[in-house]
Amino acid sequence: MGTAGVAAIDISDPATPQLLSLIATPGSAQALAVEGSLLAVADWDGVRAYAVDDPAAPVLAGAETGVGDRVLAVGAGGGYLYAGEWRRLYAFSADITARGPEIRLEPDQRMNVGSLDPGLSTLVMMVLHNDGAECMEVTGVSAGAPLAVSEDTPFLLPPGGLEPIEMWITPTSTGPGEATVTIQTDDPDEPAADLLVQWNQPGAGVGDPAVDFALSDEDGTTWSLVGCAGSCVLLAYFATA
User: Fold this and answer.
1) Exposure check for the chain: N or C terminus, fewer CB within 10 A?
2) Are the C-beta atoms of 154 and 185 separated by less than 8 Å?
3) Cα(58)–Cα(35) distance, rounded to whole angstroms?
4) CB neighbourhood size of 101 (10 A)
5) Per the structure, how many domains does the chain have?
6) Is the residue at 206 inside a domain?
């Protein structure tokens, strides 16, 4: 599991396990639950349900992204999926016999494009995915000012297909700004999917110079960003002690 996705392995002969299939998930598979032919996956920022009647050919039956913060537990029973994250519990109905399109946006909820100059147009990209088992019809792509999109609709996106969406931002000031892009499709459980695009937000954005800092490690050595000039610096933040 993890970023590699989910593997189905035949262990009927424990001495010679056989890999049947590998499901690549867009997040990071943290936990699994199985009920009959239903496989539920806690996929970091969402929940995904697969029909595994044939473990060698799993089929995505449905997905919900943007489910709270870090989905780390999942359960299945009675036609429902249960997901747990840091703050809440969620319950979803699950019908693995249904087959349809499944929209996924990349990024899936929010995009911070950093600092932009007023009056200058900047091109940013998002990607529209169809993770479902049926063709998806995209019926509309719209955005709020000062964000503009140029995408001819309607169009069809085949199962497993993707479509890059170009967006142009022309800020009117140096202050913080945001606008929402809405994608309308025939996805049966999510006919409208939103992406919040932000710019000139407080703090350091992508491409902005980092603010200097100094930290001491467990050995008492003090590290500063200025002292690491010319080197690659990786900052890793963990929520566990």
Assistant:
1) C
2) no
3) 14
4) 23
5) 2
6) no
